[in-house]
Structure formats: C-alpha cells, structure tokens
Specification:
With 280 residues, the chain is α+β, with helices and mostly antiparallel strands. The protein is 60% helix and 10% strand. The chain has a five-stranded antiparallel beta sheet. The longest helix is centred in the N-terminal third of the chain and has 34 residues. The two termini are 33 Å apart.
Length: 280
C-alpha cells in the first residue's frame, strides 16, 4: 500500500494545516487550532459527503479540558478585576493604592492565563505522520518550539503578561518624577500592549493559515481571538492616553485611559467565557 499524499498549508514558514490523501480514498485533515484546543482532526472516507471528527486519546482530552478551564477562568477573573480597577479610578472609589492592588491582582490572573495557554500548546496532542494523533507524552512545564505558530503566539502572550507585571509593580512606587513615571510605568504598559497585539495577529494567522486577516464567523476560535484582539486595541488606546506630559505632569486623557482599560478588560473576560466552550 502506498504512502498518503500530503498537502501543507500555513503562514510563511509555519505549518498550520496538513491534509493527507490516503491511497484508499480517505482524506484526513489536521488543523492546528482545533487539534490543540479540541483534540480533534477531521476524516472523510470514500463516498462520504461530510467530514467527521477523530479524537485524540482520552488522556489527551482530559488534559485539554483541565488546561482550558484554568486558562479561560483566569482570563475571566483577570479581566473583571482590571475592569474594576479602571472603574475605581474613573469614579474615584477608593484611593490610588487600592486601585493599584486591584490591578495587580488582576495581573496575576493574566499571568496565570498566559502561562496555562502556553501549557496547552506544550501538552496538547501531536499529529502523527500519515494522519492521526501520537500517544500523549509526559507532562511538560516548559518547551522551546519557535517554529510552531501556536507556541509563538502563546509565548508572546505570556511575555506580554509578564511585562504588564513590571508596569503594575512599578505603579506602587511613590514620589516618582514625570520622566520616571513614563519610563517605569508607561513604557512597560505600551510594550505589553504591543506584545498582546502581536500575539493576537499570530493567533489570527494560525486560524487563517496566512498572515493576512480573514473572517471565520462560524469558528468559535476566530471569535475568541477577535474579541481578545479588540480588547488589546483598547488596551493600547488606554496606554497612549495614559502618557504623562512632561510640561504639565498630567495624563493625555484620563477618561480615555480609564474607559479603554475598562472596556478592553471586559473584552478579555468575554473572550475567556467563549474560550471555555472551545474545548474537547
């Protein structure tokens, strides 16, 4: 029996979809995001008119469910806390230190969500040559796989949450000059927003199998990425509005900074809710 023919698709050097045409007429498709999120690939046999899912091992699916629950829950809680911190700042509820603690706690949940998203990639089922899944290996807490687009996207996301942590820690510092505020608090904020936007673009590329944007309105994964990317854009708007003018010592626009943070954070909470249903 001959070897199956293989068609490779992806964005640039990254492979995001593989299609095997087996000699007996069966077609098997591995799609990066559904495979790592739901633990499935699709199969269409000779004479069949619709694809049917083929699942990974029960152990792999159990891992995916646990990791997805933790990641989605972390983003929901983190987003709600960020929204609360922005509301406290906007409406003057509590002092700045209390608001900083709320932001910092929310940032810890974002750290958790980012890291567990990376663990989903590292511990998800791998495709086998010719179609199907390999047996699930041992648990991995870390791995370096920069030629995987899903790894790169989640690694950049996790890096962004760590940069935000620097920004949130520095916000506790007192007696800073305007230049120190912009260097220690504002600059990490902008860098974190850029990393979030890059991560979202890479996630779109994984779904679209190209670097140009696409619309996949019937794909839950696409909606998760789209809502989160909109939240990242709002975070960037907030960061730009939070720049402290050296001449006056005031922010560019306090209202935009607070409202963009609040609505952007709610986007991440909504994205977390949607992500909960993107599971095996």
């Amino acid at each position: 029996m001959g070897q199956p023919e293989q068609r490779v698709e992806g964005a640039g050097p990254f492979t995001t979809r593989l299609t095997w045409e087996r000699p007996q007429g069966e077609r098997v498709v591995w799609d990066s995001r559904p495979a790592r999120k739901r633990g499935t690939l699709t199969v269409r046999g000779p004479g069949e008119t619709a694809d049917r899912p083929s699942a990974a091992t029960p152990e792999a699916l159990h891992r995916l469910r646990r990791l997805n629950t933790v990641a989605s829950g972390a983003f929901v809680v983190g987003g709600l806390l960020f929204a609360l911190g922005a509301a406290m700042s906007q409406f003057g509820a509590g002092d700045p230190l209390q608001s900083a603690w709320v932001y910092f706690t929310g940032g810890l949940f974002f750290n958790l969500g980012g890291y567990v998203s990376l663990l989903q990639v590292l511990n998800g089922p791998r495709h086998a040559p010719g179609g199907g899944f390999q047996d699930t290996g041992g648990w991995r807490w870390w791995g370096y796989e920069p030629m995987r687009l899903d790894w790169l996207s989640t690694f950049v996301l996790f890096s962004g949450t760590l940069v935000f942590a620097v920004n949130l820690l520095d916000s506790f510092l007192q007696g800073l000059s305007v230049q120190q505020v912009n260097r220690l608090i504002w600059t990490p904020d902008v860098i974190g927003c850029v990393l979030f936007l890059v991560s979202g673009h890479l996630a779109f590329a994984e779904i679209c199998h190209r670097f140009l944007p696409c619309i996949r309105s019937r794909s839950l994964g696409w909606w998760v990425v789209a809502v989160n990317q909109f939240g990242s854009l709002l975070f960037m708007a907030s960061a730009l509005a939070a720049f402290t003018r050296p001449a006056t010592g005031s922010l560019v626009n306090v209202d935009i900074a607070n409202w963009a943070t609040l609505t952007g954070a709610l986007c991440f909470s909504i994205g977390g809710v949607l992500q909960y249903f993107e599971r095996p």
